[in-house]
Amino acid sequence: MSKKENNIKVAFDTLGCKLNQAETEALTDKFVKSGYIVVSSQDDFDIYVLNTCTVTHVADRKARHLLRMAHRRNPQAVLVAVGCYAEHSTKDLLKIDGVKLVLGNAEKMKLPQILTGLNALSFTKGSGFSADFLSNRRTRSFIAVQEGCNNFCSYCIVPYVRGREKSVPPEQIVREIKEKVASGFKEIVLTGTEIGAYNYGGLNLEGLIDIILKETPVLRLRISSLQPQEITPDLINLWENTRLCPHFHLSLQSGSDTVLKRMKRRYTTSDYLDAVNLIRSKIDGVAITTDIIVGFPCETDAEFTESYDFCQEVGFSRIHIFSYSKRRGTAASIMPNQVSPQIMKGRSDLMLKLAEETSCSFYKGFIEKEIEVLWEQAADGIWTGYSGNYIKAYTTSNKDLTNVMSRFVVQRIYEGGVWGEITEQ
Description:
Layout: E1 9-14, H1 18-33, E2 37-39, E3 47-52, H2 57-73, E4 78-83, H3 84-88, H4 90-94, E5 99-103, H5 111-117, H6 131-135, E6 140-147, H7 158-162, E7 166-167, H8 170-182, E8 187-192, E9 199-200, E10 203-204, H9 205-215, E11 220-223, H10 233-237, E12 247-249, H11 257-263, H12 269-282, E13 287-294, H13 301-314, E14 318-323, H14 341-364, E15 370-379, E16 382-387, E17 392-396, E18 405-414, E19 417-424
Parallel strand pairs: 1-2, 1-3, 3-4, 4-5, 6-8, 8-11, 12-13, 13-14, 17-19
Antiparallel strand pairs: 6-7, 9-10, 15-16, 15-18, 16-17, 18-19
Helix pairs in contact: 8-9, 13-14
């Protein structure tokens, strides 16, 4: 199917991690280059592609729900499921009405070629596309620099669906970033399954970041999730360059050392606190966000309290809370003393309340201060964007602020972020 002949409309949705977002973005570009018309998943489409996650049973359920909704909206469309859930449970996805193709992680980037070769597929030719949908992609771009994990934490299915660690050549990463910047993106997010494990021919993450800062004109460079044992003085010294976002997503999972040991995490709470203190000693206004699992098998009330107290001590700017989800094939799935859903719900509610408190405390420290915001989109006359330290900002403006970087004075806490006024654009 040549580019000139192809006016098939394709829509994408993504679940899960930033690596999935990076891969969906790369896949979208491949479809555009193959001549497909990319539209929002809320529009009419001929093909619907869902990049799935399987890190929890909730992610699995969301995937099935989105596919069923897509089929109800466009019963004649071809539905394609790709990614981690597709890797783990192909048969489950093929049972859903409209799903014609399921591809794991190794094959999903070949999807445009695979669809081109499936001449038996019958498509309804479309016309037009959502310009707003395409333009909204020109703000932040996710670049995958690494995939796979060798850690095999006892609860995690990721090594089984993503495979072993593999890193992308630095010259390819630099080339992709230059292309993204040239097409209008002002922020690049480096992502991967285990980004701190980046190693290509002896070049580690620190070396990769240094090369990117020297060889590309990117205005903002954000680094996705790291482990505390990967935080070193040499790495943190790179943040002397203000193009690096003062934001670290530092994986915790539990604030109890006994739970961390059962999880087979490779650090203690003392190691974690050392990493946090090093970061805060070097970088002003830095945001530290994290993930927490509540209700891990055998987690006692005392262990949960340890985890709660540790999170309170650290004072995260944002906490992503997950109730433990049994994943078939992992060591934790056959551990005794699985925590009941009722207890998990109670612990999750307590941790969510703490997360709100620590976020508000962090945001209050910026009231009447000026931060720099990259604006993304507007709804009902209110613009939203993010600061370098990942504070969600809100303001009103009659101007089109899409992809505009501006100085912004914080006035008050508002809707999980801050409200303020633009001072300079």
